[in-house]
Here is the input.
Amino acid sequence: MLILLPPSEGKSAPARGRPLELSTLSLPSLTPAREAVLDALVELCGGDPAVAAATLGVPKTQTDLVDRNARLRAAATARADQVYTGVLYDALGFGTLSTAAKRRAAARVLVASSLFGLVAPGDRIPAYRLSGDAVLPTLGGVAAHWRAHLDAAAREALGGGLLVDLRSGMYGAFWRPAPDLAPRVATVRVLHEHDGTRKVVSHFNKATKGRIVRALLEDGATPRTPAALADALRDLGWSVEPGEPGKAGTQLDVVVTEI
Here is the structure.
């Protein structure tokens, strides 16, 4: 089983740690593609800071993020599961998983990244600012770049297992599994039900996805089909409604009434 997570826009900047070494990251076949994004981002942020901030959508009050990007090659790194923060990652709680669950996370979880394509929880990375919809002057669209480079690496990571895709739409555009993988692709949507009405609420969505990943890692279940994943989630206490299988896989709706 491979669980794909979105990154967090907010990140915890390591205070100390060795500098970035792309060659040490998981899926080393992505190193040239990672190098291209890193070069383009550092070049942009090493120039006119106002242009860089506008290009990256950085608020005028946070121009330190541009300077941080300019110094990425020498910046301190930490484990990705410590750098990524926010609602999903707080709910998942990598640091408080049991020893067995941490081992499973190392083998089963990857995070989509605008800068690195895919990273494992234990990969050492710096904090950076680069959204999935960014367009870098010397590279072009980040999403288009990764669409051209991720398929082989993602398939390698998936192997013969089930893909549990929890990425948001922006990061889902980096790699769309081909139809041949559809029988073992499950996407998860979280719906908040209140007074008989269901809707997607960002906070519920992120928190519930974090809890789902934590529960799966702690439980150790290894479902091999979307239907088996739905059963596993029900066993763990969630209300799950599977959609019809399609060429993009099967969507599982997880319905929650409270966070």
Q: What stands out?
A: The longest strand covers residues 185-194. The CA atoms of residues 168 and 219 lie 24 Å apart.
